[in-house]
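User: Is it possible to get a 3D structure for a protein together with its bound compound? The compound here is adenosine-5'-triphosphate. I've pasted both below.
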Amino acid sequence: MAKKKNNNKIINIRFNFMWIWGAIVAIIVAYSFFGTGRSEPVAGDWNTVEQMIRNGEVERIKVVNKNTALVYLTDDAIKSYRNGDENSRFKNIPEHGEQLNFTIGSVDILDRDVKEAIADSGLEENPLTVEYFNETTSWSDMLINFLPWLFLIGIWFFFIRSMSRGAGGAGGNIMNVGKARAQEFDKDNPNKRVTFKDVAGLAEAKVEIMEIVDFLRKADKYRELGAKIPKGALLVGPPGTGKTLLAKAVAGEANVPFLSISGSDFVEMFVGVGASRVRDLFEQAKQKAPCIVFIDEIDAIGRARGKNAGFSGNDERENTLNQLLTEMDGFQTNTGVIVLAATNRADILDKALMRAGRFDRQIDVGLPDVKEREEIFNVHLRHIKLDNNIDRTFLAKQTPGFSGADIANVCNEAALIAARNDKKVVERDDFMAAIDRIVGGLEKRNKTMSQAERRATAIHEAGHATVMWMLEDCDPVLKVTVIPRGNSLGATWSVPDEERVHVTNEVLEAKLAGMLGGRIAEEVNYGTLGAGALSDLERSTKITYAMVAFYGMSKKIGPISYYDSAGTRDTFTKPFSEQTAIAIDGEVRRILEEAYARAREIIEANNDKINQMADMLLDKETIYSEDIESILGPSAQSKKEAEEKKAESSQTTEQTTTENTNPKNE
Ligand code: ATP
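Assistant: Yes, that's possible. Here is the predicted structure of the complex:
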């Protein structure tokens, strides 16, 4: 069936500033074409005009710019020509203005000829006068003269408009440049409304933040006891952990006005604008008090002052920050306004901003743990059509180190993958593919690799997996793959131990051995050193440097940390002496060599199994912990776990026996 034509098309014509320019140009062009509506003078020549002068019909000759003569006839002559012969070319001469024009060769000759013609006319009183003018009245000339100006004015307007659109916000007026573009949250809009139900996990953060809302709503309760209402709270955490989402939920749940603005909205190319916007923001907030102001990405203005002095842009940012400091806790108190702010980098914020009295509270919004990840999955899987046997706990376990935003992305990516494969529901495999894709990048199955190269990759990955499997301090291996993704040819995945809050030198040393395992397996099997281990080497060297210079894990260097949390130190000078630098290098080398020896021992002892695993990898491309277990037996971590459980249960039996025997003894 042919598609029905939509005749009721609504033509949505919106006013555009450029229309005014278009109209002006159109008027100018039209005027130059059609003039004032007068009829045009007739093109004449000197002979005709001479005859008219002799007849006493010419009243005035106006010579313009020494080259054009405009001829004005007497009223009687005009009348007689207009009423005269139908075929005469002067029948339609204009009634007003000049009636004829002609081009002259020279003014002197014209002057002489006119005088002769007057004399020839024989009239006693010839009315003719000759006037000379210099004129540039033609519209096209004017247009040409004005065009550069119009052009410049146009460009000027364009710049002013785009600057004020970027700056002034509402109204797009340059005068609004100093106004803050804070958005007031419309909590009655059901499409935009976010509630705490949409924010999974973050239990402590929610409690803290709701308490702040409570301060505003029941301020008197606190004041009666003499407590001061906090001025602000800073949400700190890695990207994508839900800081903005939490703030949106506060806006949705709190029954107070909520103004939201981003730190970068204060930044403008004009000097003084940032400070004026801060002032304006607080002015707006005070009018709405009690209310909450939310500044997202506050590090855009709140960076510590005094660094990089000398760059002019810095002064402007400092002024903005100073204004913020004054507004938050200055001479004029802003009662009833609580400032919430979010940042990824609390370490670079100015100390004055962080002190009590400004941001009294710092709320940590960290990466979610396994339980929180499960809750986040629950939130984001609400709208996705799922296969019945999707285990959310399993998904949460597969996504260690993922932020809320990553999890939202996994859910969406899984749905996209399922749709691409024409599935009706999203299955577990789609989630696994989505996770792999997010961590490793796009699969590059078509990457051309020889069989020997593929085997070397398989041996490399099997080496990592074996060492990690055999060391109880390593994270449990989840799967090993030789599917190329992004820049890597293969990968060994492990699940970080969730309960491990305290990282010891033993854990890091085991990790180093695991990282070096790949390269050693290649070395043992092929006797060559591959360049493919670059990222392993880089990461392990970095970790070792951190162990020695930051965590004080080397006995030789001692309990000293050269870590610079504030990032104030320049990169050219070292905070230690040349001797210490040599000692640090020595310690790094020692630790790495020890890890290397440890890994090599494991690999040499299990090389036949590594080859077996490599064969399996070449066959299956991806193998899981069950497959590894079938080759290597139970992992060191599971053995340790089993032992711990055994010890625990024997302890509890001992306790129960004692408890049971006690009453008997009594
Ligand atoms: P950034 O610091 O980069 O601005 P952020 O911490 O402000 O990041 P949000 O913008 O709040 O991160 O989160 C991004 C998205 O991640 C949210 O829109 C939401 O879909 C998802 N998300 C993050 N955390 C959670 C959570 N706890 N529960 C549900 N969804 C979450």
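The first strand starts at residue 42 and ends at 43. The longest helix spans residues 139-168.
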